[in-house]
Every structure is written in C-alpha cells, then in structure tokens.
Amino acid sequence: MRPGRVAAIVLRQLYLLRGSVARAVPLVSWVAVDMVLWGFLTRWLDSVAAPGTTFVPTLLGAVLLWDFFTRVMQGVAQVFFEDVWSRNFLNLFASPITIGEYLAGLVTTCVGTSAVSLLVMMLLAGACFGLWIFALGAVVVPYLLVLFVFGIALGIVGCAIVLRLGPASEWFIWPIPALVSPFAGVFYPVATLPGWMQAFSRLLPPTYVFESLRAVARGGSPSYSDLALGGALAVVDLLLACMLFRSVHRRALRSGLIARYAAETVT
After folding, report:
1. pLDDT the model gives residue 262
2. Which of 15, 167, 199, 215 has a CA between 20 and 30 Å from the CA of residue 4?
3. What is the DSSP string of 109-124?
4. pLDDT one-digit tens code per residue, 138-189
5. Structural domain boundaries of the chain?
6. For residue 130, what are the contacts with CB-CB under 8 A and spacing of at least 6?
C-alpha cells in the first residue's frame, strides 16, 4: 500500500469540500440539530421526573454516541458516492490504485469528517446542556473506537451494495443506522427487547457499548469483557466488509459491470 495514493483520495475530497459549501454544511448541521432537539427534550424530562433523576447522561449521551456512529458510517458511504455521482469509476479503477488503497482513502477521509462532527456535538452538549462526555472517564475513548470501527464496516458494506446494484440502490444505505438502532439498545436496555431481537442484538458491537456506558453513567464500573467482545466483533465485521467489497469489485471487473455503471440500475 502506497501512502501517496491514499493521500490522493483524501486530497480529492478536501478539494470537493473546499469548492462546495453544500458538502461541508452537513458535517455539522444535522448533528447540531439533533443535539439541540434531544437536549431540550432531556431538559423537559428532567423537569417532570422525580427529584434527583436526570436523563442527560443516558439519553443525550446515547444520542451523541449514535450520531457519531451514523456520521462515520454515512461518511464512508458519501465519499464513495462522490465517485458514483460523478461516474468516476472507470477513471479511478483504470489507475494503478488498489482496492486496499482506495478503502484506506475512504477511511482516512472519514476520520477527519467524523472528528469534526464529534467535536461540534461535544461542544454543544457541554456548553448548552452540561453534558461533558469525557467526564465519564477515559473509558469513553475505546467505546468510541468500537463505534468507529463498526461504522466503517457498515459504510464499506453500503459501498459494496451500491457497487453491485447500481446508483439507485443508494437509498437502501441511508436508513441502515435507523434500522440497526432498535436492536442495539441505544436508548433502552437490551433486556427490554423480545428474545429473538436480543439474540440478534448480541451480534452487534454497539450493543455492548451502550449497555456498558449506561452502567457507567449510573455510577457503576465499565465492563471490560463487554468492551473486548464488542471490539472483537467490530474488527471481524470490518474484515468481512472489506472481503465483501473486494469480491463485489472483482465480480464487477470480470462481468464488465464497471463499464456499464452509468445505468441508473444494474442487475
């Protein structure tokens, strides 16, 4: 893997962001709206709850972390979609760049965009609603890393789906975080779910993140076994996602799918 080729993918995205305010605004706009909306909701819930009860660490904290995960997943997909929308695949894959270098460029770009979104969310949550997420301790960092790795994995899976099915299938990708959230126990304990949903939840790395952080927010200690299991699942998911994308790309080359990718829908 050559760092210069990875940097070229990143540089292209920087030029796109610099040349279009419309591309830069979503990095902060949606997460800011979520922080303000859920922040006032938690403030109202605190006002009607029993004395001593606060929803800010559990509810607003969950929104912050889940928005971070969503931003990571959609950040990877959107970088890929830039090549979809510009019909740039023939130019890109006719170059010497490898699939590994291309995916590394997607991930590196996502690191920057998700870091900006996370910073905005933390500043809003802290300054406006008194939630300083790192007040929970340094354990927040590895939990954020688990969410980041799983978000990258889902983003790569989304890219593989669009590469296989065509540009029209991008509308299958945006709802993925919303479809995953009921199973991951973002806003409530997994024990609330029926048995069949709990079985699926145990396969999702975010489940272990939110279950453990809820215990920390209540004054308990973090579960390092949950952290290790969630991290292991996230890494396995990332490896499987990369293998899937490589397989879909190889099939697209052999079948000539890349050359016909200008079609709105490809079967």
Report:
1. 53
2. 167
3. HHHHHHHHHHHHHHHH
4. 778 899 999 999 999 999 999 888 888 877 788 888 889 989 999 998 888 8
5. 3-255
6. 56
CA of 132: how far to CAs of 5, 37, 45, 109, 145, in Å? 38, 17, 19, 26, 18
Structural contact between residues 170 and 85, judged by C-beta atoms closer than 8 angstroms: no
Query: Quick check: 230 and 206 in contact, CB under 8 A?
Result: yes
pTM for the whole structure: 0.87
SS3 260: coil
The average confidence (pLDDT) of the chain is: 83
Cα separation, 125 vs 133, in Å, equals: 8
- List Cα–Cα distances, 222 to 67, 102, 212, 233, in angstroms: 22, 36, 6, 18
- Between 26-48 and 61-85, two packed helices, what is the crossing angle to 10 degrees? 160
Assigned token pair, 267: 């079967």
Integer Cα distance of 73 and 155 in angstroms: 4
Of 112, 101, 44, 105, the residue nearest 72 (C-alpha):
112
pLDDT over threshold 90, residue 238: yes
